[in-house]
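Sugar ABC transporter ATP-binding protein
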Amino acid sequence: MELLRTERLGKQFGQHKALSDITFEIRPGEVHALVGENGAGKSTFIKMVTGVYSIDEGKLFWEDKPVVIQTPQDAVNLGISVIHQDRQLIPSFKGYENLFLGKAYPANGLSRSVKWSQMKETGETLKKRLGIDLDLNKTAQEMSPPEKTMLEILRAMMQDCKLLILDEPTASLTDREAELLFELIGRLIKQGTSILYVSHRMEEIFRLSHRITVFRNGRYIGTVAKEEATHESLVQMMTDQDAPERTSRPVKKMDGANKLLSVSGLATADGKVKQASFDVHAGEVLGIFGLAGAGRTELLEAVYGLRKIVAGTVAGANNEAVRPAPKTSLQRGIVLIPEDRRSHAMIGSMTIRENMTLPVIKRFATWLKIKHRQEKQTVKQYMESLQVKATGMEQEIGQLSGGNQQKVVFAKALLSDPKVFLCDEPTQAVDVMTREEIHRLLQRKASEGCGVVFVSSDLQEVLDIADRIVVMHEGKTIAELPNVGVTPEQVLQICYRHGEKGA
Ligand SMILES: Nc1ncnc2c1ncn2[C@@H]1O[C@H](COP(=O)(O)OP(=O)(O)OP(=O)(O)O)[C@@H](O)[C@H]1O
């Protein structure tokens, strides 16, 4: 028996054919990876089988019988749940309240008062069955990223889920947190649940999946057993090209290099950053690593001027302390590429061109008019170098796939010609080819005299790209190491040793 089979599935947006002729099946109890470049059609496929998008062409079969899925509830009723990258939890609700979202709360007969104890009990029983360790009395906003993922998985399993779709589930998890998720996936599989696993991270795909399906440009390219696939063969299927060469990191001597930014004893009003210090020099990539909750994002935001600072200093190239604010940061040549690009770095209803050139439009303006030809030429050049997949530069950015939105946000930052890049997870959700391109671009910028601060929860990525590494723990910078022969174990040991000391 097959759990889900699609037959010649197709989807059209206006003139654009996003998916066509998708025929493949997911078997009971398997981890089935779905891979493809940014814009290949993975999210569109998920939305079609979960009732978010209508099906323009083709058929669906569930447990070998034809089915029609018209609404998300139809999908849930069959046993299909999806966990998106952007969490679908109510922040102020406790864990067990979130578990019952969209379901009737258990109530006492006549008084109709909610049976809280029964809700908690249901949650606890489910936790035990799945071997999940999570405090359901915490509100969603008090939970760390992996705890939120666990909560969402618990919620899906409450609905008797047979096919769990995970869309880039490790995007905001550190390695150790991802381990917990992988263990849970192992338990779910043993209990007979199937997983459709969408990710750009090759190591995870090879580690977890039984079979791998590849989409390219909205088409089904093939399904291979994990044992038959290699990194190179998958990239070849995804791109019809040979795998890109991984960027190697030239060893640099930093002595005497110019300081571009100096942060000392920084603390923020909300207490997320307590005592952070680091310098950024021209010519270097500085990696910042820490476990979730270490305050990496908050530190970058404070340096850029998005968070109130209550202690410490931020100084520019001339060593003069400044009061960071987004507007003055840009003027001083500091740009932030934020993690949450959808709410912080783009305007969904504006076009790719408008999004890219908005902050620098003056550059294309005379006192009479905008020099559109020059503006378009520049946008085209950046779209080509970052391989943005779109119908053209006048397409609304909100219509692009997640990874392609990230590329536009990145291009926008490059266009403002900064001296210092503050990059928060800049390669999150981008495909392998673009990830290498972004690494290459940042290294090139460094070699041209810029300074790059690179935050990633993927430790291997930090080790691959950084010249120096600063380690953070609970809002403090606790170590700084030149990245020469550093192993992931060494960095993790620093994080955990500090954690045990409760520092
Ligand atoms: N609502 C929409 N309107 C117009 N075009 C859309 C819409 N949603 C998706 N598309 C287009 O469909 C194509 C497939 O996008 P989709 O989001 O499915 O890709 P993806 O494989 O999930 O990419 P990523 O890895 O970047 O998330 C893209 O070219 C995208 O621009």
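thats it. Residues 269 and 316 are 22 Å apart (CA to CA). The chain has three domains: 1-79+162-243, 89-158, 259-501. bye
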